[in-house]
Specification:
The protein has about 100 residues and is mostly helical. The chain is about 40% helix and about 5% strand. It starts with 5 loop residues before the first helix and ends with a helix.
């Protein structure tokens, strides 16, 4: 089974080499190496809800506390939780890696 990263699922184009990377910059989720491998993602690709500065809904999202409410209703967030099941890394664990 292939596990999608957020930029693949959302088709935002902000991954390295993506169609919007030059215009909007590379997304922090695509470049955050401290979260590489979490929930079987590349960099922060499957931990995007814990990474500040991602672009969702057409605007830059802030810190975890400001954005988690939106993330909890996100189809991608829910998909990762379903795919990972009991092995789903908690936001608390992800945030600890980012400190």
């Amino acid at each position: 089974m292939s596990y999608m990263n957020c930029w693949e699922f959302k088709k935002c184009g902000r991954e390295p080499g993506g169609v919007k990377a030059a215009e909007l910059g590379i997304c922090p989720a695509a470049s955050e190496q401290r979260t590489n491998g979490i929930n079987r993602g590349v960099n922060g690709g499957r931990a995007c809800w814990a990474i500040a500065g991602t672009l969702c809904g057409g605007k830059v999202q802030g810190a975890f506390a400001a954005k988690i409410g939106n993330c909890l209703t996100c189809e991608f967030y829910q998909r990762v939780g379903m795919e990972e099941g009991v092995n789903h890394q908690s936001s608390k664990d992800i945030l600890a890696k980012l400190q």
